[in-house]
Amino acid sequence: MIAKANKILRQVANNRLALIFTLLVLSEFVYKICIKEYFHAFKISAALKTVLQLFFVVQIIRDDVKKLWPVVLLTLIFFLGQVGFVPFEQLKSNAWFLDKYLFLILALLYIQTIKDIEKLYPLFFKVFELFIVANSILILVGLLLPTDWFNTYYGNHNRFGLNGIILRSGAATYIYWIALYYYVTQCFILKKNKYLQLAIVAIASLLLGTKAMFIGYLFLAVYLFIFWGGYKKIGVVIPILIVLVGGLFFIDDLLYLLIENSPSFQAVYEESGIWSVIFSLRDQHLLEEMIPLIQEKWTWRNYLFGGGYTMHYRSQFGLLDLFYFFGILGTGVYLFIFSKLFCTFKLNVTTGFFLLGTFVLMAFSANFFYETILAFHLIFAKCYFETIDRQ
After folding, report:
1. Quick one: pLDDT at residue 73?
2. Which of 49, 236, 254, 321 has fewest C-beta within 10 Å?
3. pLDDT tens-digit profile of 311-353?
4. How far, in Å, CA of 347 to CA of 224, rounded?
5. Residue 361 near residue 377 (C-beta atoms within 8 A)
6. Per-residue DSSP letters for 21-40?
């Protein structure tokens, strides 16, 4: 048993994708425990992120320094929107957010430097499966045991949610969206016998306690409906239409039932209304902070190159926050670079639905582009879709 474990550890250590993924996952969990035990200063995940960024830059330069042009261009756009608008201390604070936005780009650039990267995929995929199933089991354990280590909303005992060893709720939603899409395509498209894993991950995703996860369920349902040709069968279409129409009539009652059974939702509803419950107060950040700031203080330079003001005023809607930080020009450049680096697979129904679902999730949720642990889950999705192209 020990010999087998040592063999697996050596294999992971020799696989750069699997090793970095494992280190990111474990560092997040250690930091989550530190936060729960009030050791906030022990920022192991931030330290690992810094080390990885330096490693990425060195490897990219060794391969071809010209490949760093996206990082240089985005940094230039950032300074055009910041220098002359904010004091030096605020500039340093905003540069920290730039660093977060650049991590994903650097990670995507780095994997382009790995020769014969396809040979690393099988173990990388196994490590992902082991993590997501183990994390899902820990979510179920957290449901049964009196511990808050696996809770989604630490410090808030009135709102239900469990995310295992993942630190932030937003990251957990994206990660389980990727995991569900992976297992659904494995089971129903590629006909792999992974139904038990799919069931475990599906149950765990329900226990995350995030409303955005339901967007993922909707896209998965529509994807399977189209893939199986359900739209061609009248006996399937009519019941679905009846359910949808009935849902429109009773949606208010369902929302109020949810609110009545959640003290935290009820408090938000009584103070700010139904939209604040649906968007977890993001609408308040948008309407009361970000939009007034833009209207009162932004100039043409801000609209082109970004905020120049504290990120406290961001709305926590992913696409709008990207616009707030980089402006119209910078947002276009960032999305173009991301799409070119990420979408290296064929566009078809399977990948198209994943991209559309991810875009909608990103637009209405926070932290997509600058969540460190998510970067290598996105790289996993990119690598996985590349392998589907060859099957």
Report:
1. 95
2. 254
3. 777 777 888 888 888 989 999 999 999 999 999 999 888 999 9
4. 17
5. no
6. HHHHHHHHHHHHHHHHTT-T
